[in-house]
Amino acid sequence: MTKNVECARDPKISRRAFVGAAAATAAVAGLAGCAPAGEGEGGAPAAEEGLPVTGEDPFADAQVFYSTCPPECQHHNLKGYVKDGKLVKVESSELNDCAACARGIARAYMTNDPERLTVPLLRDGDKGTGKFKEITWDEAFDLIQEKFDDAIASDGVESICYVTGSGNFGAMHGPVATAFFAHLGGASTTVGSLCCAGTTAAITPIYGQRFLDTRNQIENSTYCIIWGNNPAISKQGYFQRFEKVVENGGKLVVIDPIYTESAAKATDHIAPWPGTDAALGLAMLNTIISEKLYDEEFLLAHTCAPCLVDKAAGAPVLLDAEDPASFAVLDTTSGEVVRHDTTGITVALTLEGTPQAEQYNTEFELIAANAAPWTTAAAEAECGVPAADIERIAREYAGAEHAMIIQNMGGFMRTENGTYATAVGAYLAAFCGQVGHIGDGVSDAGGMNEVKTGAPIPVPELDHKVPAIPRFKFGEAVLAEDPLKVNVLWSMTGSPMTQWPNTNMVREALKKIPFVVTVEHYLTSTALYSDLVLPCTGMFEMEGVLANARSHWVQLVEKAVDGPGESKSDLEIFTELARRYGFGEAFDVPMDTLISNVIEPTGVTLEELKEKKAVDVVGPDYIPYKDGEFLTPSKKAEFWVGAWKEEGFDPIATYARSEEDARNDNELAQKYPLFSVQQKTYRGVHSTFHALPWMDEVCDTEPHILMHTDDAAARGIADGDAVVVFNDRGEHRGVARVNGLIKQGVIGLQNGWWEQQGGSSSHVTNDKWKTLGGTHCCNQTLVDVKKEA
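and the corresponding structure tokens:
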């Protein structure tokens, strides 16, 4: 089906030799899906197959190129070696402070993998059968233009929908798609984040801006809470910094229903029921407030805790309606209501005993009122965490010298209460003064959002609003043609058939859409249901730059070799389409110009980038919200969130049990009595890298289902049995892994498996819409499990 590159596998990196070289982060015995990546000196694999074993450096005369690993993770800088026109080795470059993981090193294998797509493929059978025929690029472009024109003529340009993902955060991919479809007149896209909607909806209004990452301060922390995520897997490159916390005598607390690889390295493990994290956080906050463990000086100086909220209007009091920062406070010295940043005043944190108490509350009082029902006893009953543990971690966190909460877009926020849970983390840090200083803060897996970047190609403003399809309800929306009819779908840098919830409905949508284009390296699950599959280049096969809010570094992407066969970059594809539609001049510009457009706002010059290959734009001592200066209009942490109220929710974080909860007294909970949560694996980043046989020697080669011993015994399931996870949405198949490493009543599903490998766990995931902030509810999913018949 594909035209394979001659001698594509020779030479290749030996996965077994690579892993055998040394041990990196150790995984929990019996839990880790893939052994840790080992590196030789400088992060390089210890041995290469197909190269002579001598005392000489086999790469001494190789050409060296620099690139990066662009999916969600550490964005390590990578160094590639080319001999005889082939990329023969990739290693972690000397610019990193820690070694790249196996997924980054795998770039050498991906470049030479004979399973890579090499020519455009046109469907030649029913969708899903995998039957395609090869066509030329001219035929592909002619067909795309024909289908675009037909769609526009019948239902307007918005009937062309394009979707991108986290498969490639390079600045020449998603941004050029946005530019192209805007030039075309405004194609539609999707709304709703699968990963971090809760963080955006909470951290942005409360702290003013997100993606301000604490990673450079981790090892300075004395008390670190890893909340609902597993950085030993998802942030493997710098997990050593968390280990330093313990080595230095500090505490590492993991909050997760699974005893993860990170928990194995921690000093404490707290296992709440899925979706109850907001209640757990409010109970911690209630303990801190009732025992007066909060930092009153920080609250008064750096937050809106003392700002007044009018009881009748249900909104903060502004002394100037045109100024969103003109919050009012009570000056206890004069007894007058004055602007919060007036100098020489003594501000009241609460209004008890004052004449103003009848008309106003302070934001502090509203937070305290929402936290008050969540005594540690109440939280124990709701969250399944002992009250004594809640009290202990609340006191320890409040009293720590340097305390940090690592949220990292954790699974706990992919629930119905995810936005509130994330917000409570921000509350805790601000209430205890644990933000803006050495070794403290709230990490949301960001990088350099204080440093702006530009678009490679200007994006024209549209004179109309284009409807967007809820990503979580994509299948239903397409089938119902609401809010629009989709005639063409363009999918790139992601895989809806692997990652989007309620996959069976997504499949039906892809079958219904008349023309689906997927731009990919491999014949992925999404590509199987496409009409046209276009082969694209990857890292070390194209030029570009990575300058993304999730990385501390601006990195040059150098081209080392040609991509396999006739593969093209996303930029090349859109440039040709732009020529055909009469705006090619906007795209057909030198790469140096495009890179300069991206990095110009950062202050990094093209000459500097070419010389250094990568530039750290925040510095090793970077502290987000330094000295308590937040990026809100008031420069303070603003707890009352108007956007939440506009959506019909409480503007102060609260908690109520979710609709899909195994403890509810309803038919759904009786039918499907197990919570399920998603796990990331060593093998891939979401669905990226899952197709690589290079990972097979030491990684899971089929989906695993993590079950508690008692839950498995009740269903007659033994370790190693083939099982089916099911609910009304669909089925997910895998192999049972039975042990005590997960909370009883909860099962763990691995994220990222392709349909060809047994199917995605997203077949069963909750697709509820709309939640506060648009959070995804994949970890608020009820299922049951049975042995495979």
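(Above: one complete record from the training split.) The CA atoms of residues 500 and 567 lie 26 Å apart.
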